[in-house]
Amino acid sequence: MEFNDPAGMLRACVERLGDKAGRQYAAMARRGFRLERAMDDAQATGHCRLGGPALLEPGNPWPELGGVPLSLYAVLDTDALAPWLGEDLPTRPGLLNFFSLDPDVPYEEYRMLDVYAPEAWRVIPADPARAVETAAPEPARSCPATPVHAVATLMLPDPWDVEDGDVEFDEDAYWGASALILEKMDGLDGNTAGSHCAFGWPDTSYASQVTRRDADGPAIHLLQLAEDADLGWGWGDAGTMYFTISAKAFAAGDFSQAVADMRCC
What is a single Pfam family found in this protein's UniProt entry (predicted)? Predict the structure, then answer.
């Protein structure tokens, strides 16, 4: 769910959920961005883009799995995003390159790879002052470089990323907090479906939780990539790719701990 105005967001939550639950839900809001295609480089937000070459520091090898290079999906320029994220960005990683296994090889070769291995995806930071454009080696897929404009929004979690302890609800009327959000927010609980997004909360319209939790709380959402015919992306039936990282690793700037997760209908 996206809002431009914190006061309007709080008002909508309280009107639909009641004072206590509404305030609890509104307190879960995170700052994030919708990533929209820029008209030109001048409209782009820093170096943010989908596809194209990676932006890696000299000497940083292209990531691979079993000798097969990963494919570059996106680059986020956190320096350009930092003014809106504020304290939600505890470190300054500079550029973030997002990779996942998607080689242009015959299916028989692909099925021999361990697509669930931690090395099957990677988020690699780079100093923008030192980073250079690095073309994808074959057989990694190379999508057209598409600069994007990051539209700042406030995002609330979708129902499936809300747990029973997050908001107060009537246990005699609802099977869980997710059911309360589904009913009372009345369609305002998932406005990022089919969109490319960064930070904030992901769209989880597949009736399953994307944002893992541990002792440090919910994971941090880094990137959501929707199916995109222009870029040649597709993951099953209306699939979406999510990159997340634990709150502890994010606070430490340890992006080697980031994980990718694909969901489809």
Answer: DUF1963
Whether the model clears a pTM of 0.85, i.e. scores above it, the answer is: yes
Q: 148 has which bridge partners? A: 37
Confidence of residue 190 (pLDDT cuts 50, 70, 90): very low
Domain containing 62: what range?
A: 30-155+192-263
Taking alpha carbons only, the member of 97, 30, 101 closest to residue 57 is 97
Tally of structural domains, the chain: 1
Residue 11 domain-assigned?
no
Helices (H), the chain: 6-17, 19-26, 78-85, 107-110, 177-184, 247-252
Task: Please classify residue 15 by burial: count the beta carbons closer than 10 Å to its beta carbon, then call 0-12 exposed, 13-18 middle and 19+ buried.
Answer: exposed
Look at residue 117 in the predicted model and tell me its pLDDT.
Answer: 81
Domain presence at residue 12: no
DSSP bridge pairs for 218:
213
Contact 37, 193 (CB under 8 A): no
Which CATH number covers residue 36? 2.30.320.10
Q: What is the pLDDT of residues 120-139, one digit of tens each?
A: 899 999 999 999 999 998 88
Mean pLDDT for 229-251 is 85
CA 2, CA 32: separation in Å to the nearest integer? 9
Is 66 within the bounds of a domain?
yes
Nearest alpha carbon to residue 48 among 193, 223, 192, 221:
223
Reported confidence tier of residue 116, pLDDT bands at 50, 70, 90: confident
Residue 177 included in any domain = no
